[in-house]
Amino acid sequence: MEPFHVEPAKAPNEGEPRTRAMLNDILADGLNGSVSAISFLGSGSLPSVFSVSDLAAASIGAAALAIGDLLFAADGQRRDIVVDRRLSSFWFASSLRPSGWSIPPPWNLVAADYRAKDGWIRLHTNAPRHLEAALNVLGVEEDKEKVAASVSAWDAESLESEIVNAGGCAATMRRPDEWIATEAGRSVAAEPLISWQETGDAPPLSPRLETGKPLNGLRVLDLTRVLAGPVATRFLAQLGANVLRIDPPDWDEPGVLPEIMLGKRTARMDLRQAEQIRSFASLLSECDILVHGYRPGALDDLGLGEGERRRIRPGLIEVTLDAYGWSGPWKRRRGFDSLVQMSCGIAEAGMRLLGRDRPTPLPVQALDHATGYLMAFAAVSAIAHRLKTGRSVRARLSLARTAGLLARYPCAFDEGGFAEEDEGDLSGESEQTGWGPARRLKPPMAIEGVSLLSARPAMPLGAHEAAW
Question: Which of 404, 441, 370 is nearest to 52 (CA)?
Answer without folding.
Answer: 370
